[in-house]
Amino acid sequence: MEKITAAITAVGGYVPETVLTNADLEKMVDTTDEWITTRTGIKERHLLREPGKATSDMAVRAIMPMLEKRGIDPEEIDVIVCGTITGDYIFPACANIIGDKIGAKNAWGFDVAAACSGFLFALETGSRLVQSGAYKKVLVCGLDKMSTIIDYTDRNTCIIFGDGGGCVLLEPNYEGFGVVDSILRMDGSGRQYLYQKAGGSMNPPTAETVANREHYVTQEGKAVFKFAVTNMADVSYEIMERNGLTSDDVNWLVPHQANLRIIDATAERMGLSKEKVLVNIDRYGNTTAGTLPLCMYDFEKQFRKGDHLILSTFGGGFTWGSILVKWAYDPR
Ligand code: UT7
User: Residues 269-308: pLDDT tens digits?
Assistant: First the structure.
């Protein structure tokens, strides 16, 4: 039997209209544009402020133009896998709601909760479903409406995160294009460094948890930085090495956009020159599960058939990893 790989055949992205700049944040917390820019590389982020709109609505706005461009009816979609930690509800899954809103009447699906690695883990899952031969059109999404779990009085976190994300369509390929290899990891012992204290079964919501602001993201930035900078660089290098690729063979690094210093350290470890490293953190901040698809969407026109892309993340959990993709199409 011919070997099936899961090719990315289309990419979509979306960020909401409202922009929160560093100058805006200077008026909200004790910070400066200079501090945020030099420590993170972020200049602005987008926030979903429309009443009654949630993560699924951002997904719909990324997915529909993508399917239209590719000429695919939503009823052809077999599976929806959505990386997110800010689904519309605790349950049902965001994938369910996305499916309903786009009219994917013949699909099943589920969410992947892996924080900033949500899209990467969802991509691995979706690609295995395609590789199995059982599914022909799998929609992999990664989006977060981080503004709903960010404390805009906490300067440690509110300067970092934004709303948005994107999606890719996976289809079977018989020439080796698509997801080639993956290295995915987690270490739950790091959970206390980046998490949402209340709202789950450990600390269910009470008046007290709300008063204590425990439904917002808590992060020990320095500790997370230390783990991120070594682990993301290590897996990115390891996936190159075990696939026999040198820095010349890698066309693009698509890194999680959490901190420009982490991206630079990863690129340096891989020996990549700056022009191969895709960066849009300045415009969107950290959209958690949204960063990788949003980055591919922004830079899609630069990718050529056969290009080697390395997608790398590090996030809460801890979760991290790298996926090697052989790009399947020239700019359309
Ligand atoms: O995507 C999920 C994974 N997350 C990450 O990868 C995030 C990893 N961590 C980071 O990116 C960085 O640690 C931060 C950007 C969060 C913080 O940068 P840092 O260089 O590690 O700063 P720090 O936490 O060590 O703080 C340095 C100083 C402190 O003041 P003192 O104690 O030196 O007087 C902080 O209180 O900067 C202060 N500070 C700020 N000052 C102005 C912390 N936040 C701010 C701020 N504006 N927003």
Answer: 999 999 999 999 999 999 999 999 999 999 999 999 999 9
User: Residue 185 corresponds to which tokens in the numbers above?
Assistant: 């990891």
What the block records as the tokens of 215 is 């439904």
Pocket probe for ligand 1: among 30, 40, 156, 288, the residue whose CB has the most ligand atoms within 8 Å is 156
CA of 224 from ligand 1 middle (Å) equals 10
In whole angstroms, give the CA distance from residue 37 to residue 62.
28
CATH class of the structural domain 5-178: alpha beta
Same fold, 5-178 and 180-326: yes
Q: Whose CA is nearest to atom 41 of ligand 1?
A: 31
Side-chain half-sphere of 18: how many Cα atoms within 13 Å? Answer: 11
Q: Which residues line ligand 1 (CB under 6 A)?
A: 31, 35, 39-40, 116, 155-156, 159, 221-222, 224-225, 228, 258-259, 262, 286, 314-316
Rounded to an integer, what distance in angstroms lies between the CA atom of residue 77 and that of residue 88? 21
**Predicted TM-score (pTM) of this structure:** 0.97
Q: How do residues 159-197 score in pLDDT, each as one tens digit?
A: 999 999 999 999 999 999 999 999 999 999 999 999 999
**Whose Cα sits closest to atom 11 in ligand 1?**
259
| Amino acid at site 2 | E
Determine contact, residues 48/16, Cβ cutoff 8 Å: yes
Q: Looking at domain 180-326, which CATH architecture does it have? A: 3-Layer(aba) Sandwich (3.40)
Cα–Cα distance measured from residue 33 to residue 37, given in angstroms and rounded to the nearest whole number: 6
Give yes or no for a contact between 196 and 48, defined as CB atoms under 8 angstroms apart.
Answer: no
